[in-house]
């Protein structure tokens, strides 16, 4: 019976994520429209609300083309695998109904995001196009660079709360949000999330103005739609994780979902405001700024924890 309930819960979670991804694309197009002093989608239905579903029908009914010289199986399966991974990360969302008992939820999240690098690499390589290969190499280098600082920030949180379970974030922020205690860390985490999900100002994977396009240049119709859906699902997940880690993260209240929506809006706001970074500056930021910063914070938390243990022993 438990297995059946877990399966039903998982299917419902995936359906909710897909619907929210659809409306996130609509929100993005509307917000970017108003930032650029225009309306955005407003022809389909009332205020363009059914637009995402029309886009989905259009994308998935288009004819699937593929390059004759491509390695067909990896080329065909990498968007599917990418989408599957993006939905898999949602399984470690700490639901209070005990959907899955994820005592090592943070490790699971890191494993899933690390695997996402392979899908980008295989998508670029299997297309057998120079542009796609160059785009995938750059995207992989970027993702790997920022994963280091993400992992170190998570590790410092593990030292602070003494657990890998995401539920602990909720219990530890009952009285004060972690954002008030660690504002610089929150900003670095948010910047790393932008780089991790290939968003502006770090969107080299999709919008490389000096190349024709990124790793997805040879994809059209269904394959492109799956890559697109995977990206937006990971944006939503990163927003959820930010709220959970820094903004209280009480999943029992509706306020949690308003915070999540606000964080997703900030992702779009950044896209409408900031210009694209230069690639060497992106790498400099990762290795020369964020890495020393997160290492220093990690050392600070380790020292703080040891000091507290010594203090407790002395008492």
UniProtKB/TrEMBL annotation:
Entry membrane topology: Multi-pass membrane protein
Keyword Transport (UniProt): yes
GO biological process: aerobic respiration
Source taxon at top rank: Eukaryota
Ranges that cross the membrane: 7-27, 75-97, 104-124, 144-162, 174-192, 224-247, 254-274, 294-314
UniProt keyword Kinase, yes or no: no
Enzyme Commission numbers on file: 7.1.1.2
Keywords associated with the record: Membrane, Mitochondrion, Mitochondrion inner membrane, NAD, Transmembrane, Transmembrane helix, Transport, Ubiquinone
Catalysed reaction equations from the record: a ubiquinone + NADH + 5 H(+)(in) = a ubiquinol + NAD(+) + 4 H(+)(out)
GO cellular component, one term: mitochondrial inner membrane
Pfam families for this protein: NADHdh
Cellular localization per UniProt: Mitochondrion inner membrane
Enzyme class label: translocase
GO molecular function terms noted in the UniProt entry: NADH dehydrogenase (ubiquinone) activity; NADH dehydrogenase activity
Family per similarity comment: Belongs to the complex I subunit 1 family.
Main function: Core subunit of the mitochondrial membrane respiratory chain NADH dehydrogenase (Complex I) that is believed to belong to the minimal assembly required for catalysis. Complex I functions in the transfer of electrons from NADH to the respiratory chain. The immediate electron acceptor for the enzyme is believed to be ubiquinone.
Protein name: NADH-ubiquinone oxidoreductase chain 1
Originating species: Megaselia scalaris
Gene coding for it: ND1
